[in-house]
Amino acid sequence: MSLLITDGLFKRFGGVIALDNVSIRVEPSSITLLVGPNGSGKSTLINVISGFYKPDSGRVFFNNCEVTGWPPHKLYSAGIARTFQLPAPFAKMTVLENLLVAAKWSTGESPLTALLHRRRWLEEEAEHVERAFRILELLSLRHMWDRRASELSGGQLKLLELGRVLMSSPKLILLDEPLAGINPRLAEAIVKHISSLRDELGVAFLIVEHRLDVIADYADYAYAMFRGRVIEEGTPKQVLKSPQVLKAYLGG
After folding, report:
1. Pick from 132, 197, 217, 241: CA 20 to 30 A from residue 121's CA?
2. Does domain 4-89+154-249 bear CATH number 3.40.50.300?
3. Where in the chain are the domains?
4. Residue 145 burial (CB count, 10 A)
């Protein structure tokens, strides 16, 4: 059973058709790529799936439930998380604190329930800290747990952003150009971390990315978009060799 299904999504902005009958699937514990030239509808599709835009028509299913039109916070609670091209951490907080504030609601967030259920609150806080350190270990950031976010490099901030969404225990993470502005060595490291998270935590990823030379070998499946439509699908190598895709990238 597919984790995510979009069925015939259509989205128009004025006279511009951004999505035209877009149907894709993302399998559990997989890495799926969305490729295509700028303006092909990739980011719009991510925004529809994550609830920032509502489709004009079509449906979205997640974890065997229709979630069309759900707001972002409800989708987040259901298990869909996303990152953005520009990380936005709490700069004055430490790396660990940035992860802890991203954890899902706990007893301690309500003063009354914290007082009435102090033991449960302390146990939950300990679990959050344990999970945060495990995530930092997976992302090779454990040694920076007490550093302020403002001290991190661009690549490390990307990893911190990924760590923050992992604190919610998502089933699916949407990444919009996670390698943008990152040098080749760090880009390769980020892709390896994404692959490890898929394998070790069972998380699925839907990724918009232009640096296909770095990420294609790690992905399980790919969809190519052009002018709001899916024009090709298959393994990344199959998609990138498609005459239709090559024509789209060359300005067809």
Report:
1. 197
2. yes
3. 4-89+154-249, 92-151
4. 16
- pLDDT, tens only, 15-60: 999 999 999 999 999 999 999 999 999 999 999 999 999 999 999 9
Q: What is the pLDDT of residue 108?
A: 47
Neighbours of 190 (CB within 10 A): 22
Residues 99, 120: Cα–Cα separation, whole Å: 20
Read off the pLDDT of residues 203-217 as tens digits, 9 standing for 90 and up: 999 999 988 889 999
Sorted by sequence, the CB contacts under 8 Å of residue 233 that are 6+ apart come out as 24, 221, 222, 223, 224, 239
Tokens (6 digits) for 131: 């999970």
Starting at the edge strand found earlier in the chain, the sheet holding 4-13 runs: 16-26, 4-13, 57-62, 65-66
pLDDT of 153 reads 86
Burial (CB count within 10 angstroms: exposed 0-12, middle 13-18, buried 19+), residue 3: buried
Is the separation of the CB atoms in 53 and 124 below 8 Å? no
